[in-house]
Design a protein that fits this description.
Layout: H1 10-15, H2 23-26, H3 91-121, H4 130-140
């Protein structure tokens, strides 16, 4: 007969989602002749539906008193580029150039080392040290 009191956490009761499955309870008992509360059932019956620019969803949306946005591929759009902006390289382009410069420096260093060691020892090459000629010419003048 007498039941002891149970403590219930109200946060779990408030956070629980109660789904309403039927249309009448979703609309709080208000009737519905056509979904979306329109005076017509098919969107083609809307006045101005077939006017230019309104057939794509969101194309007629204008916020404020601004001109309607034109597509970039339109022939009437005039694109103006700012000449003062310089092109910005991507990280991949910068790294590619850095690797290329490093490879060129490595080849130059290998060539200098090869000429100064291997080519110098070869009698048939008649190799003259270019660094000695440049130093001598600079000291002589």
């Amino acid at each position: 007969a007498d039941q002891p009191a149970r403590e219930v956490d109200i946060s779990t009761e408030m956070n629980r989602k109660a789904r309403t499955l039927d249309l009448r309870s979703q609309r709080n008992g208000i009737g519905c002749k056509s979904l979306g509360d329109k005076a017509y059932r098919h969107p083609e019956y809307d006045s101005g539906f077939h006017s230019a620019g309104n057939l794509v969803v969101g194309s007629s949306f204008i916020r404020g008193h601004f001109k309607k946005t034109e597509p970039r591929n339109s022939t009437s759009v005039q694109l103006v580029t700012d000449g003062s902006r310089r092109s910005v390289k991507s990280y991949e382009e910068k790294m590619r150039e850095a690797h290329l410069m490093e490879a060129q420096r490595e080849v130059q260093q290998l060539t200098r080392d090869w000429e100064s060691h291997t080519l110098k020892d070869c009698e048939e090459a008649k190799w003259e040290d270019a660094s000695d000629d440049e130093d001598g010419a600079a000291q002589g003048s």
